[in-house]
Amino acid sequence: MANLTAHVGIYDTYADWEIGHLLVELRTGRFTGTPVDVVAVAESLEPVTSMGGLRVLPDLLLADLDPAASNLLILPGAGIWDADGGHAFTAAAGRFLEAGVPVAAICGATFGLARDGLLDKRRHTSAAAEYLAASGYAGGDLYGDERAVVDGDLITAGPSSPVQFASATLGRLGLASGETLEAYEAVFDREDLTGYPVLMLAAHA
């Protein structure tokens, strides 16, 4: 498989934990056998401070982000979304979806996508239906009360589902089998260690 690249949007107060599982599995490929290049994208090259206080130096300007050079755009939650911010990132998400490149959004980022019209015709989930309704969007009938939802090139999840977010995204990219992903959720979400042997087989496949 050719080298894959995932771009992750970063902005002040981005929620570290929401994308932590996904970034680790993409970058290491420990259960997929396919390491993915992870590139941090921001509106400037100045350091960004996460909600957990980590200072991260962006790799790429958002203005230079080309969907043709990417396999995935990841958008975490952050304070900006509820403060009517992040429009440049939702515009980028629109370009990715138009180009047929997956977009994975979690928590507040789903609010931004809803607010800017990207969830009006796509099945999705978030923290709660009422949360997205406050955006004034027209896609309420397509909301699913699920841990993660995949609709074509769009993956969405709520803030309490980082493991399912990772699993759904890895599945959409075709990086892991259904059996491996079920074992992954068993171990990392349900503390069911019966899935561990399956993950070890995947790690050494």
From TrEMBL:
<protein>
    <submittedName>
        <fullName>Type 1 glutamine amidotransferase family protein</fullName>
    </submittedName>
</protein>
<keyword id="KW-0315">Glutamine amidotransferase</keyword>
<dbReference type="InterPro" id="IPR002818">
    <property type="entry name" value="DJ-1/PfpI"/>
</dbReference>
<dbReference type="Pfam" id="PF01965">
    <property type="entry name" value="DJ-1_PfpI"/>
</dbReference>
<dbReference type="InterPro" id="IPR029062">
    <property type="entry name" value="Class_I_gatase-like"/>
</dbReference>
<feature type="domain" description="DJ-1/PfpI">
    <location>
        <begin position="8"/>
        <end position="169"/>
    </location>
</feature>
